[in-house]
């Protein structure tokens, strides 16, 4: 009986191709948006955690702004602190560096979001001043050229830059860019080294990608910005064997002293950082997928509409079927199967499309979406539930038709 | 025990002032193997009676026993199963499902019974052979002539080996040749011992029946046994009388034939119930028999 119902549903859907296509479109859009958004979120989470793991457990992060309360969560992270000028200064970097338990400290001092190459200006770049300690903290080696070392050795040649792999590709495609120049805020910088392509976007919490970053020595950054530093974060690497918690306390104490006891910064351990970023990404993802889920529900309503139309169009057919002995249940099943074919079809096509979109994103953008099986199962589950739920009303309407009236219909 | 037993059964449609009495305390019993032709003007309750017998409709009052079992108060699902197993319908407009091939249409009742596809295809082929439609098995309904479509519909009605075949004006949409083919098919089915109830406006077709019911205003006003092969007596009267219908009769609207019908007193005693539904014109009006 079920196979008969299925064949029946397929043939009736085939009969009104356009209607079927557009009805499915609702479900397809819903599924595509849910799967894509959730996989983007998952990808982002993975990128952030990959980057954080890359840093290693012994790296502490100092950020401007405060996180109150026991639970260091994003809701407690003062958004204002992102907008206001940073409360961290180069002096803080120095005082952290001088702590006995700290091996290295490096600031990320935001300078500019644009740079000019030979081909003209290009945006989507993150120019930051930092100290040579960053390379150790990031475990980075140069792909080409070398990474700038202590300021003392490069004093005579302060205007040098280390660029990310994407920028190198953009500027010089396959050529080795070392020795060429790049202009930042009108000042020319010699490209000193190129970072290898990295999977994780190191600075993703600040919205930047290591691959499209330009690092210049802190002193050069000071020159460029007229000694206004805008330190987004300070990385501090503890010495091997040093206790993390006591290091956190030591940093808090040191920075707090230089801030006259004002607690306008936060020291985060890696796992805390992970929790904060996960939560941020999670919140955004669930918000977006909530919106996408509405699309799914609207798709379900579309199916209900079409089935209702189909039921009234086929009143006579229902009458005939009942006259020759179809029970209410059999009629119900017939229309339920039709609704299910629409939703299942829509879901399958939607998932296929979402996969395609993911592939294109991976190929042509810096996003790294991750499609996980649970998400697919969940989405299909939701769309099936919506399909059944919204098919029930029309199917019941069909099943309850009085055979006499139905036969007279049309 | 009679196959169909209907006792003082009425059917009302509508509410309040708009109430229509479609069947007025009809009592009828039909034995197994009878070929009953039901005649009467439009709105006389023929179709309502057949719908009740076919369990497509429930009576407002009265009891209906099918094969000794009281069925008039069963749930709609139980009635659906009885329709499937006991009753075969043949409609005036064939009512084949346009999206299914002939063989799928014919085997549909078996599908609802849960028979596996191969077996039901086999049965359907056999039945189609019987009605001479074997070579049209995989045609779609729109590819068939009217006569072929009706034969396919009859095959569908027969496939469950029903106790009763209910045919509501099965020749209404057919030309005389196809009508003859279809009626011969019914005759053959009847010869095999089936019970057939046939609604018709055509007095000629009473030749195939061995019992003719005349209905008027929701009542059975005549019940005549007739030998097969002969047109029923009253039907013949109508048949020949209608040739003498004058223009005045047509102008009068309501059948002039009814003017001198015995039983007129019913309509004059203030109980007159106008025939419901559209008027079909004099040609199809049927006079009442004497009671």
Number of helices of chain B: 9
Which class do the helix and strand fractions of chain A yield? Answer: alpha+beta
What value does the Rg of chain A take, in angstroms? 30 Å
- Per CATH, what is the topology of chain B? Rossmann fold
Main β-sheet of chain A, in a few words? Answer: 10 strands, mixed
CATH class of chain B: Alpha Beta
SSE layout and pairings?
The complex is a heterodimer of chains A (410) and B (291).
Chain A: H1 2-15, H2 17-55, E1 59-64, H3 80-83, H4 90-97, E2 102-112, E3 115-117, E4 120-122, E5 126-130, H5 133-138, E6 144-145, E7 160-163, H6 165-172, E8 181-184, E9 187-194, E10 213-217, H7 218-224, E11 231-238, H8 244-258, E12 265-268, H9 270-313, H10 315-323, H11 328-364, H12 373-399, H13 403-408
Helix pairs in contact in A: 1-11, 2-9, 2-11, 2-12, 4-8, 9-11, 9-12, 11-12
Chain B: E1 4-13, E2 20-30, E3 35-39, H1 46-53, E4 61-66, E5 69-70, H2 76-86, E6 87-90, H3 102-113, H4 117-130, H5 146-158, E7 164-168, H6 176-191, E8 195-199, E9 211-216, E10 219-225, H7 233-241, H8 247-252, H9 264-268
Parallel strand pairs in B: 3-8, 3-9, 6-7, 7-8
Antiparallel strand pairs in B: 1-2, 1-4, 4-5, 9-10
Overview of this protein structure:
The complex is a heterodimer of chains A (410) and B (291). In chain A, a hairpin with a 2-residue loop joins strand 3 and strand 4. In chain A, strands 1, 2, 5, 6, 7, 8, 9, 10, 11 and 12 form a ten-stranded mixed beta sheet that branches. In chain A, strands 3-4 form a two-stranded antiparallel ribbon. By secondary structure, chain A is α+β, with helices and mostly antiparallel strands. Chain A has two domains: 178 residues, no CATH class; 211 residues, no CATH class. About 3% of the residues of chain A have low confidence. In chain B, 46% of the residues are buried. Helix content of chain B is 32%, strand content 21%. The longest helix of chain B is centred in the middle third of the chain and has 16 residues. Chain B starts with a strand and ends in a 23-residue tail after the last helix. In chain B, the strands form two sheets. A six-stranded mixed beta sheet of chain B has the order 6-7-8-3-9-10, sandwiched between helices. Chain B has a four-stranded antiparallel beta sheet with strand order 2-1-4-5, covered by helices on one side. Chain B is α/β, with parallel strands linked by helices and 291 residues long. In chain B, strand 7, helix 6 and strand 8 form a beta-alpha-beta unit. Chain B has one domain: Rossmann fold (3-Layer(aba) Sandwich). The interface between A and B is medium-sized, with 23 and 25 residues.
């Amino acid at each position: 009986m079920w196979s008969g119902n299925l064949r029946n549903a397929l043939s009736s859907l085939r009969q009104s191709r356009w209607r079927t296509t557009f009805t499915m479109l609702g479900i397809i859009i819903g599924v595509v948006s849910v799967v894509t958004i959730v996989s983007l979120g998952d990808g982002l989470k993975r990128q952030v955690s990959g980057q954080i793991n890359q840093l290693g457990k012994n790296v502490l992060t100092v950020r401007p702004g405060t996180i109150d309360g026991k639970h260091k969560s994003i809701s407690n992270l003062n958004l204002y602190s992102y907008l206001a000028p940073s409360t961290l200064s180069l002096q803080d970097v120095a005082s952290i560096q001088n702590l006995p338990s700290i091996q290295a400290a490096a600031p990320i001092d935001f300078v500019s979001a644009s740079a000019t190459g030979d081909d003209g200006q290009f945006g989507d770049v993150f120019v930051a001043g930092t100290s040579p300690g960053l390379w150790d903290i990031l475990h980075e080696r140069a792909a080409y050229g070398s990474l700038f070392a202590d300021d003392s050795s490069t004093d005579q040649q302060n205007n040098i830059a280390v660029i990310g792999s994407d920028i190198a590709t953009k500027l010089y495609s396959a050529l080795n860019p070392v020795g060429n120049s790049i202009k930042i805020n009108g000042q020319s910088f010699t490209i000193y080294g190129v970072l290898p392509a990295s999977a994780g976007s190191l600075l993703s919490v600040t919205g930047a990608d290591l691959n499209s970053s330009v690092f210049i020595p802190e002193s050069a950054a000071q020159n460029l910005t007229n000694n206004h530093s805008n330190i987004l974060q300070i990385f501090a690497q503890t010495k091997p064997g040093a206790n993390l918690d006591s290091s956190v306390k030591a940093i808090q104490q040191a920075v707090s002293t230089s801030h006259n006891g004002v607690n306008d910064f936060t020291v985060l351990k890696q796992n805390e950082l992970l929790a904060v970023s996960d939560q941020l990404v999670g919140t955004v993802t669930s918000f977006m997928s909530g919106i996408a889920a509405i699309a799914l529900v609207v798709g379900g309503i579309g199916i209900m509409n079409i089935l209702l139309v189909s039921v009234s169009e086929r009143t006579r057919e229902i009458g005939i079927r009942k006259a020759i002995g179809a029970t209410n249940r059999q009629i119900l099943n017939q229309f339920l199967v039709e609704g299910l074919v629409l939703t299942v079809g829509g879901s399958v096509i939607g998932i296929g499309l979402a996969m395609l979109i993911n592939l294109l994103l991976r190929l042509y953008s810096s996003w790294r979406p991750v499609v996980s099986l649970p998400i697919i199962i969940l989405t299909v589950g939701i769309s099936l539930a919506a399909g059944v739920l919204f098919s029930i009303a029309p199917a019941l309407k069909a099943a309850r038709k009085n055979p006499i009236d139905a036969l007279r219909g049309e | 025990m009679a196959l169909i037993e209907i006792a003082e059964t009425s059917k009302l449609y509508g509410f309040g002032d708009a109430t229509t009495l479609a069947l007025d305390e009809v009592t009828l019993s039909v034995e197994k193997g009878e070929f009953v032709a039901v005649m009467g003007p439009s709105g006389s309750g023929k179709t309502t009676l057949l719908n009740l017998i076919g369990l497509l409709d429930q009576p407002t009052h009265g009891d209906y026993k099918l094969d000794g079992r009281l069925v008039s108060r069963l749930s709609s699902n139980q009635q659906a199963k009885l329709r499937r197993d006991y009753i075969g319908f043949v409609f005036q407009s064939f009512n084949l499902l346009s999206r299914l091939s002939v063989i799928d249409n014919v085997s549909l009742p078996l599908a609802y019974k849960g028979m596996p596809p191969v077996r039901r295809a086999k049965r359907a082929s056999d039945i189609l052979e019987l009605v001479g439609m074997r070579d049209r098995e995989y045609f779609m309904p729109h590819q068939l002539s009217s006569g072929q479509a009706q034969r396919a519909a009859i095959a569908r009605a027969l496939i469950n080996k029903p106790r009763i075949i209910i045919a509501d004006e099965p020749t209404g949409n057919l030309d005389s040749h196809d009508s003859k083919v279809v009626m011969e098919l019914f005759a053959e089915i009847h010869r095999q011992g089936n019970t057939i109830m046939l609604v018709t406006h055509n007095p000629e077709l009473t030749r195939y029946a061995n019992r003719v019911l005349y209905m008027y205003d929701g009542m059975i006003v005549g019940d005549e046994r007739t030998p097969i092969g002969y047109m029923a007596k009253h039907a013949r009267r109508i048949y020949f009388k209608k040739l003498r219908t004058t223009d005045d009769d047509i102008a009068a609207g309501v059948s002039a034939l009814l003017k001198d019908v015995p039983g007129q007193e019913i309509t004059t005693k203030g109980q007159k119930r106008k025939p419901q539904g559209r008027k079909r014109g004099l040609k199809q009006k049927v006079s009442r028999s004497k009671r």
